[in-house]
TrEMBL record:
Stored Pfam families: Aminotran_5
Keyword line: Aminotransferase, Iron, Iron-sulfur, Metal-binding, Pyridoxal phosphate, Transferase
Domain Aminotransferase class V: 2-365
InterPro entries: Aminotrans_V_dom, Aminotrans_V_PyrdxlP_BS, Cysteine_dSase, PyrdxlP-dep_Trfase, PyrdxlP-dep_Trfase_major, PyrdxlP-dep_Trfase_small
Source species taxonomy: Bacteria, Bacillati, Bacillota, Bacilli, Lactobacillales
Gene3D superfamilies: 1.10.260.50, Aspartate Aminotransferase, domain 1 (3.90.1150.10), Type I PLP-dependent aspartate aminotransferase-like (Major domain) (3.40.640.10)
Highest taxon in the source lineage: Bacteria
Cofactor(s) needed for function: pyridoxal 5'-phosphate
Protein name: Aminotransferase V
Organism: Streptococcus bovimastitidis
Amino acid sequence: MIYFDNSATTIPYPEVLRTYQEVASKIYGNPSSLHRLGTNASRILKASRQQIAELLNCQESEIYFTSGGTESDNWALKGTAFEKSAFGKHIIVSEIEHPAIKETAKWLAGQGFDISYAPVTDKGFVDLEKLSALIRQDTILVSIMAVNNEIGAIQPIKAISQLLADKPGVTFHVDAVQAIGKVALEEFMTERVDLASFSGHKFHSVRGVGILYKKSGKHITPLLHGGGQESDQRSTTENLAAIASMAKALRMTREKEEASNQRIAKMKELIYQALQTYDDVQIFSGQESFAPNILTFGIKGVRGEVLVHAFEDYDIYISTTSACSSKAGKPAGTLIAMGVPVKDAQTAVRISLDDDNNMAEIEQFLTIFKLIYQKTQKVR
């Protein structure tokens, strides 16, 4: 099997699974309990939070545990909107955000908030000039993803941070789900970023656990009320085994990040160069300012889902852009926002690599691609 769908989810590290099993079986007390078992659990929770904070270059008190990227995104938008509604109801998100952001923004529009969508260039980057023109006196939130999940475009978070430098009343949220471990931390965790979302299963942790970074001094309305966990910001008994596992996964990912990305970039480049030799292949991902692991392309006249299943017949697994919308059969929203014609956007498929892939797999993929390309000649 060749797995090239790591942007959808990664395979948990064996060490991470061992941590999960050990904590789940041995540290089973509720961290809120007063007895010794609860105290032991509370220590693990604190140690995990401290380790994650150090790895993200922030304070321990700025880390909040969630169920994943979708919850973190929802909380960032809804929590900010409700907290700051007295000061304004205008929110800006980009046209290429993940559904967790765009669908939340749409829901907020139904609650009386005014949503503006920042356009992108034909290469898939947020247009800074047009974004600037959207900012108003009543703007309370700007939410821009760090790395686009469909084509891998690294968004200009530093430039947006400078744009918002003299607008302290505007909360700046970054969806960093696809960025962690693939892009240097300083490129998307700037001092101006107020909120940032992360998801454990995108960096080899287990599913069902994530992080919301909330800068000290920033206030958002809790979505969950109850027992007062997470400093009374997210009430529910903490998923301790998953949290400890995520801390382990983040440490392992950050430790080998530089060397890993160099390997991944070389593999991506090999595929990129090979695909360029085919007349009927369109490559939608660029090279400069793109994540090292994501490459999106299409064969003219061949729908993306057809290509996905064709590769699956050879035990090679890729996807049609975003995993969250692929089953709906919709063309890649990012490509449409870039101005790509619908018929071309419908051909798009995404390869997303990771450190556990290798050059032998790349060569096998290219061999199979040649066979599939030849088989689709009549369609083309």
